[in-house]
Amino acid sequence: MIRIELDEATLGATRIAISPLWDAFCSLHLARPHRTPSWPYEEWAVRAREVLREDDRTAALQLLVDGPANFPDFLLPLPVGASSVETELDTIRATPPGVVRAGVEEHYPGLEDHPRIRPYLDDPEAACAALADAYLAYWEGALEQQWPTMRRLVEDEVLIRARTFATEGIDALFTGLEARAKWTPPVLELTKHIDAEYRAGERRLLLVPLVFAEGCRLYSTDDPEVLAVSFQARGTGALRERAATGPEATDRLGVLLGRGRASVLRQLGGPLTTAGIADRLGLAPSTVSEHLSVLADADVVTRHRVGRSVYYQLTDTGRALLALLSGEDVLRAVS
Question: In what residue span(s) does the HTH arsR-type domain sit (predicted)?
Answer without folding.
Answer: 241-335
